[in-house]
Amino acid sequence: MIPLMKHAFLHEEETKKALGEFILQADRLSMDQKCREFEVAFAAYQGRKDAILFNSGGSANLAMLQALKNLGRLKAGNRVAFSALTWSTNTMPIIQLGMVPVALDVRLDTLNVTSKELLERLAEVDVQAFFVTNVLGFTGDMGEIKRICDERGIIVLEDNCESLGTELPEGKAGNFSLGSSFSFFVAHHMSTIEGGMVCTDDPEFADMLRIARANGWDRNLSPERQEEMRAQYGVAGEFEAKYTFYDLGFNMRPTEITGFLGLNQMQYLEDTIARREGNYLRLEKTILSNPDFVPLDHSHITRLSTFAFPIVCVSAEERAKYIARLQEAQVELRPMICGNMQRQPFYRKYVPQTFELPNADAIHERGFYMGNYPELTEEDLQTLECCLTPA
Length: 391
Prior knowledge:
Blueprint: H1 12-25, H2 33-46, E1 50-54, H3 57-70, E2 79-83, H4 88-96, E3 100-104, H5 115-122, E4 129-133, H6 142-152, E5 155-159, E6 167-168, E7 171-172, E8 179-183, E9 196-200, H7 203-213, H8 223-233, H9 238-241, H10 256-266, H11 269-288, E10 308-312, H12 316-328, E11 333-335, H13 345-350, H14 358-366, E12 367-371, H15 378-388
Parallel strand pairs: 2-3, 2-4, 4-5, 5-8
Antiparallel strand pairs: 1-9, 6-7, 8-9, 10-12, 11-12
């Protein structure tokens, strides 16, 4: 069988041994120093000023919107645009926090929203924020999207959970926004079992993310910021501050296991990105030679860190044919993430306004993906090539 992911970790045996030794020696396993060390290392890798670690990428998405609401930069009733081809935890927080989701179509050949789709929607509807998803390692023209949103005062957030390591001429995916989320769930570019991160260059936003992550208290802020907040709200001292809650929050804290695993797995990150890109570019030759598939365009991307092998067929009948062929070869498959999000049951239940999204519909009906990861063997890749070769 060729599964979506063969192991929980890169270099799994060594990682599990190291984890076991860490647990035996650690004095504390709740969020502490290892988590902070991972945050510092990841922010440096991504090239942003700050990183805030969460217990999942989904929590990171929810916390970003809650933090913006706490700061008054967004409020209930604001319209938040989002990529129609995305994951549920990119869209659900918009609804859960009383905002109005506005779906944007994607391009069929990039799987992503581009500035064209954004401008078309903005001609119809004003939005206060755009929560863009960088899908499966691919992106839209993020530099132009950022320029348009900056000109109009639209807050940009990025769900970069599937595109860690992808680069454009203007910079890394995840660096075109106020805040960007990353996921370290098993099968992502690096795994901490469960885990997520937000990267940002905005210190006020970073502090509010820490408040929203941990019940609304100030324990994870700098001493200077703690003093400011305690003075502002008349908190007498350290003892009273222990159970003082400044704004709305959740318990989204990671554990020291998350921090340890993140630091451990970062040593393999550059290699895994290179291998994922190499695997994709090899298989792409077969995909491009087959008229049953829609070619995907990544000419605007300088480094392609793919989460998976995405396939868009020219018809639903062709998709059924190739799914059957791959499943017969014991290749594990998934739909193209959530397809057209407007067609999901929860979305139809809570959101009355929908838009025509022909490309998201096409991907919903004609798309699927297979896992891409460093442990794919030569035999695995030959099997995939054989299954995707025209009959």
